[in-house]
Design goal:
Layout (H helix, E strand, L loop, with lengths): L9 E6 L6 H11 L2 E6 L17 H6 L2 E2 L12 H17 L3 E6 L2 H9 L9 H14 L1 H11 L1 H6 L5 H14 L3 H6 L9 E8 L3 H17 L2 H11 L14 H8 L8 H21 L5 E4 L5 H14 L1
């Protein structure tokens, strides 16, 4: 539990890598406790992106409503700061009705931002962003990554040379302020979350088990129309490859196939590989998370296992 202040309302956080069974466990908990699900997923915020984000279908959402999905179009951007604002508002509404917020997802940055607060970075400058985008179009993102390395080597070392969104933001901050992202993070003051929280992390005892589920999940997405979904998105919206929506795992690989940047025969293997890498990064976050109960997601009966902990939290 993150705080001993019993005057605060309860909340439960359920974190885990893709394909670890978070949604199924969340629904079991909603059946057993007065809980409401708040999604912590940076891909499910996009309208019309359903297949590739494994968004619950309409029938499931009717029985188990999820807050913070279908918020913006794939043309738009969603930040950790906006997530915190939206999540706190949703949590307050759930609490006001005598229920318990159940935050479920795999976007670890969002969980961290909600738990610890955010550094006060300068606001985005549309003109400067357009200028950086124009430079990237002319020189390529690896060249801008090299430029970032001369001004903010610590940030550059954490980023891939093709990570357009984060390179753009880091360069924007440097050019606006002459200071690095690290400078602002060092000034950050933790902002305690005004809740008594229990955090659970789903981790596999056998990584091969998770890999198999990831393969099956991606196969199901392909069979469920992922390629058609991306074609429809491209027809409906003005999209570019560097938008956050099209950089989501699965969508990025389909985009590259449509653009002729990879053979169609490689789509399945590249999609599975990218999803495994994503899950690996999620597990790295979880292993460094403080005050969390790690659960073997391969074991049955997890809801019964954690039920006494949640009952204790709710009773305080």
């Amino acid at each position: 539990m993150s705080t001993a202040d019993k005057a605060l309302p309860p909340a439960v956080m359920l974190l885990g890598p893709t394909a670890s069974g978070k949604t199924a466990l969340a629904m079991e908990l909603v059946d057993q406790f007065p809980m409401e699900i708040i999604s912590v997923d940076s891909a499910q915020v996009f309208i019309d992106m359903n297949v590739g984000t494994a968004k619950p279908d309409a029938a499931t959402l009717q029985c188990y409503p999820h807050r913070l999905i279908d918020l913006i179009t794939p043309e738009q951007r969603y930040s950790a700061a906006r997530f915190c604002s939206d999540a706190l508002a949703a949590m307050a509404d759930v609490t006001a009705r005598g229920r318990i917020p159940l935050l479920v997802g795999g976007t670890m940055l969002y969980f961290k931002a909600l738990r610890d607060g955010l550094a006060e970075l300068p606001e985005a400058d549309p003109e400067l962003r357009a200028e950086i985008d124009a430079e990237a179009a002319a020189r390529g993102w690896p060249a801008l990554h090299a430029e970032l390395a001369t001004h903010d080597p610590d940030t550059a070392a954490r980023l891939k040379p093709t990570d357009a969104q984060r390179i753009q933001r880091a360069l924007e901050v440097v050019r606006l302020t002459g200071k690095t992202l690290g400078h602002f993070f060092e000034q950050q003051q933790p902002v305690p979350l005004p809740y008594r929280t229990l955090s659970f992390g789903l981790v596999p005892n056998d990584r091969a088990w998770l890999h198999h589920r990831i393969e099956q999940r991606f196969d199901d997405m392909l069979a469920g129309g992922l390629v058609d979904e991306v074609h429809a998105l491209r027809a409906k919206y003005r999209l570019q490859a560097d938008l956050p929506s099209m950089r989501c795992v699965g969508y990025r690989q389909v985009w590259e196939m449509i653009e002729g940047q990879m053979p169609g025969a490689e789509l399945r293997d590249r999609g599975v590989f990218a999803t495994r890498q994503f899950a690996k990064r999620q597990l790295t976050w979880l292993n460094g998370w403080e005050q969390i109960s790690l659960l073997d997601c391969q074991k049955p009966g997890l809801a019964a296992t954690i039920r006494p902990l949640i009952e204790s939290l709710a009773a305080q």
